[in-house]
Predict the 3D structure of the following.
Amino acid sequence: MSLLSGLAGGQTGAAPRNDTVRISGRVTDQLGAPIPRALVKFKVAALDVTPVVVHTDQGGTFAFRAEPLRKYDLVVEMPGFKTIAKTIEIQSASSTKRIIGS
C-alpha cells in the first residue's frame, strides 16, 4: 500500500500573516480512499527545528501555515503504510504540487 499526498498553497481569509500561505493536502490510499489520523510532519528543510505535526481529519485532509519561496520537509506516516518523506518547494502563494509515494 502507499499514501498519496497532494499539496496546495493559497491565501486564506482568516486573518493570516501577510507573508504566509496556507498549505493543505489530502492523504489517500492507492484506491483514493482518505486515510484519517495519518501523522503529517512539516518543517523548513535543512534546519534543525522541531516540525509542526498534525493528524489528518476523517476526510484525510491536513493544513499548515508556511512562508512561500522556501523548501520544506514533509513526512507522512501511518501504521500499515509506507512512510513518505519528500522535500517540497513552495514557489508562490498559488503553487500546487502533487506528491505521490509508493
